[in-house]
Amino acid sequence: MFKDIYIETERLILKPYCMEDIDDLYKVYSDEKVMSYIPEGVMSFQWVKDLIEWMVEDCYENNTPDNIDKFGVSVVDKKKNKVIGWCGLGSLDCKPEDVELFYGLSSEYWGQGLATEAAMAMLHYGFDIIGLKRIIAVVKSDNIASKKVIEKLGMKFKNILNVDDPNYSGYDGELYYALTKDEYNENNVL
Ligand SMILES: CC(C)(COP(=O)(O)OP(=O)(O)OC[C@H]1O[C@@H](n2cnc3c(N)ncnc32)[C@H](O)[C@@H]1OP(=O)(O)O)[C@@H](O)C(=O)NCCC(=O)NCCS
């Protein structure tokens, strides 16, 4: 479901992953600066290929509003018509009942408000198109840029994650933020 996403913002387009974009996506997923905050770390070309295949053939086919596995999309720089990052929604691995917002941008594009622009569009899609009632975000306490993005989106800090499951120990100690649809609507009429 919702595999035909196409959102235009002022400077960006959000569109589905496709194999034609593998070189640009690989550039982002193999960027050490970007991946240092992502549990998977720097990814190989084959890993990115598998990721695109999984997203297109499995996730896009099987996601439903009540059961989103992962819904990742490409973030395109409109002017250059080039994929510069990813953004998406998906079940939080350590707490699958939650739908998490995630994003990452090629480091040469940082500091221009682009992640906030992409993430805001994804929140709109999650609340207004998919019909989600609540979206969360998690972030490592030293990831200042991402914390800033989350706060600029109006998400509210709730607690620090305490994760006992050794399979998901990477989440332990991360900051947990949430936004309900009502709060999102209130923020957007102000
Ligand atoms: C997080 C990330 C997507 C932010 O991208 P971005 O396009 O630079 O984000 P924005 O420009 O929209 O906002 C970043 C904000 O953080 C601020 N910021 C960035 N680094 C900072 C620092 N070291 N100290 C203080 N503020 C900082 C920026 O000034 C900006 O705030 P402002 O709009 O008030 O000036 C990007 O850094 C990234 O891809 N990081 C690696 C992947 C990642 O961490 N993903 C999220 C996992 S939770």
From TrEMBL:
Pfam families in UniProt: Acetyltransf_3
Domain called N-acetyltransferase: residue spans: 12-182
Domain of life assignment: Bacteria
Record-level Gene Ontology MF annotations: acyltransferase activity, transferring groups other than amino-acyl groups
Name of this protein: GNAT family N-acetyltransferase
Species for this entry: Oceanirhabdus seepicola
Record lineage: Bacteria, Bacillati, Bacillota, Clostridia, Eubacteriales
